[in-house]
């Protein structure tokens, strides 16, 4: 695990504990029909799963155009990347597999129309694509709060009565599609040794979207 991954893990754990203390997690997941135990299991699994990438395939990619520098991070925290001319495409368990499975669960247990889901996911996906950016040598990154705000707004407009589950579905799947899958063509030019669907720069967006979008909806 890289130092930056450790830093995010600590941040996410602190974020989770803070939400528990003020009862916001209980409020958020009561809206989704989950018990407190089920909600904690979902969040804990997502957090732990963020450290697991399931490899899919490798592809040739272009080397970074210049040496990478991360000015917002101290030098000792900057990731030490080893690039060998190929990029491993993987799917992140916490940011990809679990949100997809839970979204399917919500679709089956809530009266949400297919058109509403398509419009919600499409809207958030488009916004995620517009606000995400390829970061050479690293992957795809995007501002954390864009997707939750977009998902909550879209859900409230499309289906106010089912806004909480629709916000989660639209937010998580929208980020996966808009910031990962729609950016797939950029991966060859990143010079990154690993491109993880739902991982790296988009996991924090998906993780926080699932909580904040539900609270706002």
Per-chain topology:
Layout: H1 3-21, H2 24-31, H3 36-49, E1 53-60, E2 86-92, H4 93-109, H5 114-131, E3 133-135, E4 139-141, H6 146-158, H7 163-180, E5 194-197, H8 203-216
Written account of the structure:
- The protein is mainly alpha-helical and 217 residues long.
- The protein contains 8 helices and 5 strands; from the N terminus they run αααββααββααβα.
- The strands form 2 sheets. It has a 3-stranded mixed beta sheet with strand order 1-2-5.
- A hairpin with a 3-residue loop joins β3 and β4.
- The longest helix is centred in the first third of the chain and has 19 residues.
- The radius of gyration is 17 Å and the shape is globular.
- About 7% of the residues have low confidence.
Secondary structure class reads mainly alpha
Helix content: 55-70%
Q: Give the spatial strand order of the biggest sheet.
A: 1-2-5
The largest sheet is: 3 strands, mixed
**In whole angstroms, how far apart are the ends?**
35 Å
Q: Can I get a quick summary?
A:
The chain is mainly alpha-helical and 217 residues long. Helix content is 56%, strand content 12%. Strand 3 and strand 4 form a beta hairpin.
Structural features:
mainly alpha, two-stranded antiparallel sheet, 8 helices, 5 strands, globular
């Amino acid at each position: 695990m890289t130092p930056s991954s450790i830093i995010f893990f600590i941040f996410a754990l602190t974020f989770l504990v803070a939400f528990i203390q003020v009862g916001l997690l209980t409020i958020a997941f009561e809206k989704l029909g989950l018990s407190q135990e089920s909600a904690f299991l979902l969040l804990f699994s997502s957090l732990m799963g963020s450290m697991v990438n399931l490899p899919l395939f490798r592809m040739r990619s272009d080397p970074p155009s210049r040496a990478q520098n991360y000015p917002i991070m101290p030098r000792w925290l900057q990731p030490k990347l080893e690039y060998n001319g190929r990029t491993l495409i993987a799917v992140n368990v916490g940011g990809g597999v679990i949100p997809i499975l839970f979204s399917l669960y919500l679709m089956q247990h809530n009266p949400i129309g297919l058109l509403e889901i398509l419009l919600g996911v499409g809207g958030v996906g488009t916004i995620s694509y517009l606000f995400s950016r390829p970061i050479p040598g690293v992957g795809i990154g995007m501002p954390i709060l864009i997707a939750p705000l977009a998902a909550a707004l879209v859900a409230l407009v499309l289906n106010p009565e089912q806004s909480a589950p629709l916000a989660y579905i639209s937010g998580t799947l929208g980020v996966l599609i808009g910031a990962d899958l729609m950016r797939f063509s950029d991966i060859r030019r990143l010079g990154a040794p690993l491109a993880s669907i739902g991982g790296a720069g988009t996991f924090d967006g998906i993780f926080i979207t699932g909580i904040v979008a539900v609270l706002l909806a």
